[in-house]
Automatic annotation (TrEMBL):
Residues covered by the FPG-type domain: 243-277
InterPro entries: FPG_cat, FPG_N, H2TH_FPG, Ribosomal_uS13-like_H2TH, Znf_DNA_glyclase/AP_lyase, Znf_FPG/IleRS
One Pfam family linked to the record: Fapy_DNA_glyco
Record-annotated Formamidopyrimidine-DNA glycosylase catalytic domain positions: 2-93
UniProt superkingdom: Bacteria
Signal peptide as annotated in the record: none
Cofactor: Zn(2+)
Protein name, as recorded: Fpg/Nei family DNA glycosylase
Molecular-function GO terms, alphabetical: 8-oxo-7,8-dihydroguanine DNA N-glycosylase activity; damaged DNA binding; DNA-(apurinic or apyrimidinic site) endonuclease activity; lyase activity; zinc ion binding
UniProt record, GO biological process: base-excision repair
Reaction(s) this enzyme catalyzes, per UniProt: Hydrolysis of DNA containing ring-opened 7-methylguanine residues, releasing 2,6-diamino-4-hydroxy-5-(N-methyl)formamidopyrimidine
Organism: Spongiactinospora rosea
Amino acid sequence: MPELPEVESLAEFLREHAVGRAIAGVDVVAFQALKTVDPPVTALGGLIVTGAGRYGKFLDLDCDGLHLIFHLARGGWLRWRDDLSGARPVRPGKGPLAVRVRLTPDDDGRAPGFELTEAGTQKRLAVYVTEDPASVPGIAALGPDPLAPDFTADTLKGIVGGSRAQIKGLLRDQKVIAGIGNAYSDEVLHVARMSPFKIASSLTDAQVADLYEAIVTTLRDAVARSRGLAAKDLKTEKKSGLRVHGRTGQKCEVCGDTIREVSFADSSLQYCPTCQTGGKPLADRRLSRLLK
């Protein structure tokens, strides 16, 4: 799933490649992805792309005040095309293509644009056309952005102080902090040397400060690594920059211990026992329940 660093990089990519161009048309292939009907998607035709931004994991393409907003969900991605003039007409089917956004042709006749694709059987990619981004339910419910100037250690202290949730789940909750998902929550907790099962309200002031620093530096470093890359290269960059997530069985780059994995909610998490849990492996609670 694209998380804050990848979505921020995609927004930067669109600012560089799409802003200033006019929308030639938006073709919706996966009709279940379109969550709004008024204004209609056809209203985007002829409008100039004036900006590209991000709300948590939501991408926002501002077209003369009308916003094309999309959430890529778990299996979605943005695929930039330098020339769509020869692309086949879109037809609803079983392929990954969900939406195609066509921009007006260049002087050389090439018509650039991008496609939103979604892999897998769980179709959760969501597209909205709205005059007000805050009208999108997922955006309206977002917690503070961890890269915003007003997100401070005191902000984080207020968030964790009253929560009995495990810190892993709290970091992933978009209503609490916007933009962090399964991968970067693993990375943040590894940098903070903190157990993913630690109860949020039990954190000391020093641990809150360490966690805050880990959140900000991990996300900023990931954004910096992705800056300037083509959209097609962002997935590879994300994987190469991860130290624990997705690296079960490999050696921890910090201490040399073996990275382990346990089930968590609807997915799994990776961690280093030496760095995060005092050398003790975490119990896989979902597996334990199955064995009873």
